[in-house]
Design goal:
single chain; two-stranded antiparallel sheet; 6% strand; mainly alpha; two-stranded antiparallel ribbon; elongated
Amino acid sequence: MREDHAQEANPYLLTAKQKNHFCVVDEHIVISPFEKAAEYGHAKVTKHFGQSFGLSVFAGAFIALAFVFYLTVTTGSSADSWGLVRFSGGIAFSLGLILVVVLGGELFTSTVLSAIAWAQKRVSTKQLLGCWTRVYLGNLCGAMLILLLVMMSKMYAMDSNQWGLNALHVSQHKIHHDWSQAFALGILCNLLVCLGVWMTFSCKDALAKSLLLILPVAMFVSSGFEHSIANLFMVPLGIAIQHFAGNEYFSALGVMRQTFADLTLSNFLFNNLIPVTLGNIVGGAVFVGLGYYWIDNTAMKVPGEAASQHISTITKTPMQISKKYQDSSIAQQTQYQPSQEDLAMKNKIQKLIVSELMDTKPTTLSVDTSIYQALTLLAKNNVRSAPVIDKDNQLLGFVSEQDLMRSLWSEEFASTLPISVKDIMQTKMLTVAPTEKIVQLLEFMVVDKNKLFPVTDSGMYISGGYQSYEERLRDASATVPSTYPVVENGRLCGVIRRETFMQMFAKLYSPEHDGITHPVEQQSVA
């Protein structure tokens, strides 16, 4: 059954929830962005300290690197193109948040969304503040690491020392806001950061997440809003250049070192970092997190207006494809009005379960059966594969004709050969339960939905060129097993094969069939 089980490592394979059953027949609840945000925040608070702190260090480094990119892009620019220069710098700075989201960093400004989990009473105030503190300190460590590397590499000397001068001016500008101004700019900044992160909850595709983050970040950077973690790198960078660059550096620039004498840690702490950090908390935790929590909580209190949980299967449907790629043939199919006989037939098929079609007395093997006996048995019974069971009918493995013939082929090359079925059987298997629906198993067996509907989780069409539904359907064959053991409580109760479906449809669609009674019922009547 090597051919049948060629996809042992494919994404349909087993999860703890599904045990030995197909992912395709499982169902899940469609989670709203708010629910994802709540889980996002809860996961941050309850994450292991070491993991959380380590990811926080990375996030601080990512944001610092993004500011290095910003300084490089905006250095030497003309004052006549102020808006475009700041916009290009904002686009460059978006790299930081993209790295954080795609690579899984812990950034303080987005971590404040964990206020949702606190409002839901899933975490305590102590846990919440502990999470914020460790993430903030981790971000600080990451920022300081990049600051050290930038100073060691003397990047401030680039473009005839203009890069460092740009950093000095940006840093000095940040400490000259009054307290209320810095607080308001902090609110506006994290409002955009958290809304950008919130948008990424609507998709799973890394490219889509990255594109969604660019404009919110570009706006807050180009508009001069204040980001506390970015400032943990930017202002200390200006302070470091002012203190350690040397007199010759400022002489080459033609400016006095005293011009930047106000770049001190105390000015940074009290004139910028404290009000900006508080503003970031209000903008992200209160305006976005608790704001959406209040809206969701209000909706749940209104009778009859709460959104019901929607159950759907884990399969993409044609509705997820852009209308640009849905051709007229699909439209014609949706306009087709089936007859009463067709509807009756489809209803019967929808109700069929595996136990109604499975072979209850399949050919089986034991672990002690020799490969030669197994080969003879499969050939005699005209089957391509067989389950391996013990004396209590417990399923132990599966053997296919490919497994057997591959062993025989290796005779010319191997010094030792497997003798029994135990040595060649496949122990990683896809199995089904007797109560699982035939239609879902059939779909899994014959259609690769990713080929039929080539879109990402965010709905982006990813095929190389336009193809009609019929063209895609021809290429959408599923490379999955054609035979499955049917297992209940670990015991083999039958086998279901793709050939069984062929026989069923041959009877259902035969001219003599009435289209109402399915073949199983016909057999029972006979």
